[in-house]
Amino acid sequence: MSKASEYQTLLSAARGLLQDKQQPISIYANLSALLKQTLSDVSWTGFYLYNGTALYLGPFQGKVACVDITLDRGVCGKAASERKTIVVPNVHEFPGHIACDEGSNSEIVVPIVKNKALIGVLDIDSYQFNRFDKVDQKNLEALVKLLIAAI
Protein backbone atom coordinates (compact mmCIF):
# COMPACT_ATOMS: atom_id res chain seq x y z
CA MET A 1 0.00 0.00 0.00
CA SER A 2 1.37 3.44 -0.89
CA LYS A 3 1.86 6.13 1.72
CA ALA A 4 -0.95 8.19 0.15
CA SER A 5 -3.30 5.17 0.40
CA GLU A 6 -2.31 4.59 4.02
CA TYR A 7 -3.19 8.16 4.88
CA GLN A 8 -6.43 8.05 2.93
CA THR A 9 -7.41 4.97 4.96
CA LEU A 10 -6.19 6.54 8.20
CA LEU A 11 -8.05 9.85 7.80
CA SER A 12 -11.25 8.14 6.71
CA ALA A 13 -11.17 5.79 9.69
CA ALA A 14 -10.33 8.68 12.04
CA ARG A 15 -13.35 10.64 10.84
CA GLY A 16 -15.49 7.61 11.64
CA LEU A 17 -13.92 7.17 15.08
CA LEU A 18 -14.44 10.82 15.93
CA GLN A 19 -18.11 11.09 14.91
CA ASP A 20 -19.53 10.18 18.30
CA LYS A 21 -18.99 12.28 21.41
CA GLN A 22 -16.29 10.57 23.50
CA GLN A 23 -14.01 11.22 26.43
CA PRO A 24 -10.66 12.63 25.24
CA ILE A 25 -8.74 9.68 26.76
CA SER A 26 -10.76 7.28 24.59
CA ILE A 27 -10.05 9.38 21.51
CA TYR A 28 -6.30 9.41 22.18
CA ALA A 29 -6.29 5.65 22.83
CA ASN A 30 -8.16 4.77 19.66
CA LEU A 31 -6.15 7.15 17.49
CA SER A 32 -2.84 5.78 18.77
CA ALA A 33 -4.03 2.25 17.94
CA LEU A 34 -5.32 3.34 14.53
CA LEU A 35 -2.00 4.99 13.69
CA LYS A 36 -0.01 1.91 14.74
CA GLN A 37 -2.15 -0.51 12.74
CA THR A 38 -2.47 1.68 9.64
CA LEU A 39 0.97 3.19 9.08
CA SER A 40 3.80 0.98 7.87
CA ASP A 41 7.24 0.97 9.44
CA VAL A 42 6.32 2.74 12.66
CA SER A 43 7.48 1.42 16.02
CA TRP A 44 5.66 3.74 18.43
CA THR A 45 2.58 5.94 18.14
CA GLY A 46 1.08 7.96 20.91
CA PHE A 47 0.39 11.12 22.76
CA TYR A 48 2.14 13.19 25.37
CA LEU A 49 -0.28 15.54 27.12
CA TYR A 50 0.58 18.92 28.63
CA ASN A 51 -0.17 19.58 32.30
CA GLY A 52 0.88 23.25 32.33
CA THR A 53 4.47 22.42 33.26
CA ALA A 54 5.61 19.40 31.25
CA LEU A 55 4.43 16.70 28.88
CA TYR A 56 3.28 13.44 30.46
CA LEU A 57 2.73 10.09 28.82
CA GLY A 58 -0.76 9.54 27.43
CA PRO A 59 -2.25 6.65 25.46
CA PHE A 60 0.21 4.94 23.11
CA GLN A 61 1.04 1.78 21.17
CA GLY A 62 4.56 0.40 21.36
CA LYS A 63 7.34 -0.25 23.85
CA VAL A 64 7.36 1.23 27.34
CA ALA A 65 7.97 4.98 27.10
CA CYS A 66 9.33 7.95 29.02
CA VAL A 67 6.78 9.28 31.50
CA ASP A 68 7.63 13.01 31.75
CA ILE A 69 9.24 15.34 29.22
CA THR A 70 10.00 18.96 30.00
CA LEU A 71 9.56 21.44 27.17
CA ASP A 72 13.31 22.02 26.96
CA ARG A 73 14.09 18.35 26.19
CA GLY A 74 13.83 16.10 23.18
CA VAL A 75 11.86 16.26 19.99
CA CYS A 76 8.54 16.31 21.85
CA GLY A 77 9.63 19.21 24.04
CA LYS A 78 10.87 21.19 21.04
CA ALA A 79 7.67 20.63 19.04
CA ALA A 80 5.58 21.59 22.07
CA SER A 81 7.57 24.69 22.98
CA GLU A 82 7.79 25.92 19.37
CA ARG A 83 4.25 24.75 18.57
CA LYS A 84 5.35 23.41 15.20
CA THR A 85 5.79 19.99 13.66
CA ILE A 86 9.30 18.57 13.92
CA VAL A 87 10.50 15.88 11.49
CA VAL A 88 13.76 14.19 12.48
CA PRO A 89 15.31 11.91 9.82
CA ASN A 90 17.98 10.63 12.23
CA VAL A 91 17.25 11.00 15.96
CA HIS A 92 20.88 10.24 16.82
CA GLU A 93 21.82 13.60 15.30
CA PHE A 94 19.13 15.55 17.17
CA PRO A 95 20.62 17.48 20.12
CA GLY A 96 18.98 16.37 23.35
CA HIS A 97 17.08 13.45 21.84
CA ILE A 98 15.50 11.27 24.55
CA ALA A 99 16.05 7.61 23.74
CA CYS A 100 13.05 5.85 25.32
CA ASP A 101 13.57 3.07 22.75
CA GLU A 102 17.18 2.86 21.66
CA GLY A 103 16.09 1.16 18.42
CA SER A 104 14.28 4.28 17.25
CA ASN A 105 15.98 6.04 14.33
CA SER A 106 13.51 8.65 13.05
CA GLU A 107 10.63 10.59 14.54
CA ILE A 108 7.84 13.04 13.80
CA VAL A 109 6.09 15.10 16.45
CA VAL A 110 2.98 17.21 15.79
CA PRO A 111 1.84 19.71 18.44
CA ILE A 112 -1.80 19.70 19.52
CA VAL A 113 -2.92 23.30 20.09
CA LYS A 114 -6.54 24.32 20.65
CA ASN A 115 -7.56 27.97 21.02
CA LYS A 116 -3.86 28.88 21.36
CA ALA A 117 -3.50 26.51 24.34
CA LEU A 118 -1.03 23.63 24.18
CA ILE A 119 -2.87 20.33 24.75
CA GLY A 120 0.05 18.01 23.99
CA VAL A 121 1.81 16.34 21.08
CA LEU A 122 1.34 13.41 18.74
CA ASP A 123 4.60 11.45 18.65
CA ILE A 124 5.47 8.73 16.12
CA ASP A 125 8.76 6.83 15.91
CA SER A 126 10.28 4.42 13.42
CA TYR A 127 13.21 2.01 13.41
CA GLN A 128 13.93 3.22 9.85
CA PHE A 129 16.03 6.27 9.14
CA ASN A 130 14.27 8.99 7.08
CA ARG A 131 10.84 7.37 7.57
CA PHE A 132 8.92 10.67 7.79
CA ASP A 133 8.57 13.41 5.18
CA LYS A 134 6.29 16.24 4.02
CA VAL A 135 3.53 13.76 3.11
CA ASP A 136 3.52 12.45 6.67
CA GLN A 137 3.63 15.97 8.07
CA LYS A 138 0.69 17.18 5.96
CA ASN A 139 -1.49 14.19 6.77
CA LEU A 140 -0.64 13.97 10.45
CA GLU A 141 -1.35 17.68 10.84
CA ALA A 142 -4.74 17.01 9.16
CA LEU A 143 -5.33 14.19 11.68
CA VAL A 144 -4.50 16.53 14.56
CA LYS A 145 -7.03 19.06 13.21
CA LEU A 146 -9.69 16.34 13.34
CA LEU A 147 -8.59 15.48 16.87
CA ILE A 148 -8.74 19.12 18.01
CA ALA A 149 -12.29 19.46 16.72
CA ALA A 150 -13.31 16.34 18.64
CA ILE A 151 -11.84 17.17 22.06
Which superfamily, in CATH terms, is the homologous superfamily? GAF domain
Could you say how many structural domains there are in total?
1
CATH top level is Alpha Beta
CATH structural fold name:
Beta-Lactamase
- Please state how the strands of the largest beta sheet are arranged side by side: 3-2-1-6-5-4
Rounded radius of gyration (Å): 14 Å
Q: What is the correct CATH architecture?
A: 2-Layer Sandwich
How does this model look, in words?
The structure is a single chain. The chain contains four helices and six strands; from the N terminus they run ααβββαβββα. It has a single domain (3-150), classed as Beta-Lactamase (2-Layer Sandwich), CATH 3.30.450. A six-stranded antiparallel β-sheet has the order 3-2-1-6-5-4, sandwiched between helices. The model has no long low-confidence stretch (mean pLDDT 94). With 151 residues, the chain is an alpha+beta fold. A hairpin with a 2-residue loop joins strand 5 and strand 6 (117-126). The chain is 37% helix and 26% strand. Helix 1 packs parallel to helix 4 (134-150).
Fill in the keyword field for this structure.
single chain; alpha+beta; 37% helix; Beta-Lactamase; 151 residues
Summarize the model shown.
This protein is of the alpha+beta class. It has four helices and six strands, in the order ααβββαβββα.
